Amino acid sequence: MKSGQKSVILFTICAFLFILHQYLQKIAGISLPLVDSYLDPLLCMPILLHLIVWERKLFHRRTEYTLSLSHIVGYILLVSILCEIVFPLWNEKMTADP
């Protein structure tokens, strides 16, 4: 199995879990505290990184485009800073984790 196929499978599973969790939480009203607290942040980076690669493939018109390790680390740091520092300062409903 090629790396691109594994990436698509991982993205599909993560996106499905995310949508299922949002449906159960927001529409069906089912609350699973441990899942509600940790599933969305866990799924964030695989979904986000796949969408970034997809956008870059369209922008650069190269089907073999992949993110370098430095770009992956940079995106993880950016999302961490935004979610743990900037957003909690901006909105009192959000809580920063240590």
From TrEMBL:
Transmembrane segments: 7-24, 30-53, 65-90
This protein's record includes keyword Membrane: yes
Keywords annotated in UniProt: Membrane, Transmembrane, Transmembrane helix
The protein's name: Uncharacterized protein
Organism: Sphingobacterium phlebotomi
Organism lineage string: Bacteria, Pseudomonadati, Bacteroidota, Sphingobacteriia, Sphingobacteriales
